[in-house]
Design a protein that fits this description.
With 132 residues, this protein is mainly beta. The chain has one helix and twelve strands; from the N terminus they run αββββββββββββ. It has one domain (2-88, 115-131).
């Protein structure tokens, strides 16, 4: 019984690692969160929308890197980082009839939460590195 309680407590502490930002009372699409280095923040984004991350007033973004650069448009302006998912276009080469040669089809992959996972690293002038 004690082990079960301990395991339950540990599982709950891991669940608290994700910080859900507070929704604005004026617009439900706007959320706010105060940075805490020990928390993980979810940034919601969708095709056709831009998400903005605001760093502290004295921070300036000097570098951004993502694991899937073709799927994101990143724009930094001072202490603001604008994040926009974008559709990824790829070519699929196939051959239904080898005598006719290869056919090339263009496939457009739209962003979706189930498959559009990557990391984003932001470095600022205060020698801070954020993993988003």
């Amino acid at each position: 019984m004690k082990k079960l309680i301990l395991v339950s407590f540990l599982m709950c502490s891991f669940l608290n690692a994700l910080e859900l930002p507070q929704t604005s009372k004026y617009d439900k699409k706007i959320t706010y969160a105060v940075f805490n280095a020990h928390q993980v923040f979810r940034i919601a984004s969708a095709n056709g929308y831009v998400s903005v991350v605001e760093f502290s007033k004295d921070e300036r973004i000097i570098n951004t890197a993502t694991g899937f650069s073709q799927g994101w448009e990143l724009t930094d302006k001072g202490n603001l980082l604008f994040i926009k998912p974008k559709a990824y276009t790829t070519k699929y080469i196939h051959s239904e009839n080898p005598e006719e040669g290869n056919a090339i089809s263009e496939i457009i992959v739209d962003p979706n939460p189930a498959e559009w996972k990557t990391n984003l690293i932001v470095t600022t002038n205060l020698n801070c590195m954020y993993l988003i």
